[in-house]
Amino acid sequence: MKIWDAHCHLSTPGRTVDERMARLMEIADRVGVERVVLSMGLPPLITNPTPEQLRKKNDETMEALLHWNHRAFGLCYVSGEHVEESLKEIERCVEKGPLIGIKLWVAKRCNTPEVEVLVKRTHELKGLIVQHAWQKTSGNPPGESTPLDVAELATRLPEVPLVCYHAGGNWEAGIRALRPHKNVYVEIAGSNPTAGFVEMAVREVGAERIIYGSDAAGRSFSSQVGKLMGAQIPEVAKELIGMGNLRRIITPILKAKGITP
Fold it and tell me: Strands, DSSP E only, in the chain?
């Protein structure tokens, strides 16, 4: 089974971007991960970046692709707190550069008009749109989206494919919140490899709407691959989750950039 990982970071050890990338791919090779999607540059991850910090993070992500563009894709880090500057980053990094979509994290919730502007522009470019979402028992910080926020955005933009990272953290609630929205893909990274997680996602939204991700190196490749490999679902479903679905939704922008999917 081929695995494309939709959710990776450059948090592996290394003195340079290239050393970190080489280490990341060395570990990926051990567990059979063929390709990775990177975002947000080098550590530390910045929750509410300035425009200058966004640009630096995107420069680092693009540098990581220089020697690994046959194994890696990259996403442009943008923020609803800086719409005009983020639109310029989308133009620089996605429209004219090598990145294939945007990463939205916790600066501003995704059901706001500011984020919607960024999502619409990326969709015009056929780019991949991924949104971190988590539903914390103790309550989310002001800018952190919940699965319900993703559902609200999906309702307003039903023609736009969206990827909800982490299945919302509290995955049982997240999967149910996202279930009615056919344009939302549920990504499974970032939580413990709990038995029944992937099985419930397949049962509730269908294997065609689930995407594999690890959140490496914050989470180990092995624990996240185990979440998929150990799931009690048909092999054809594992193949869709492991690679097929991600490959299908990024094919339009890869073709636009002249890249063979």
Answer: 3-8, 33-38, 72-74, 76-78, 101-104, 128-132, 162-165, 184-187, 210-211
> How far is 242 from 256, CA to CA, in rounded Å?
23
Q: Which of 6, 3, 68 is nearest to 250 (CA)?
A: 6
Q: Pick from 237, 189, 193: which is nearest to 217 by CA?
A: 189
DSSP for 55-86, please give it.
HHHHHHHHHHHTTTTTTEEE-EEE-TTSHHHH
Structure tokens at 109: 């919730």
Distance CA 109, CA 133 (A): 9
CA 100/CA 44 separation, integer angstroms: 22
Please state, in angstroms and rounded to a whole number, the distance separating the CA atoms of residues 59 and 247: 24
pLDDT tens per residue, range 139-190: 999 999 999 999 999 999 999 999 999 999 999 999 999 999 999 999 999 8
pTM of this structure? 0.96
What's the order of all strands across the beta sheet hosting 76-78?
76-78, 101-104, 128-132, 162-165, 184-187, 210-211
Q: Collapsing DSSP states into helix, strand and coil, what is residue 176?
A: helix
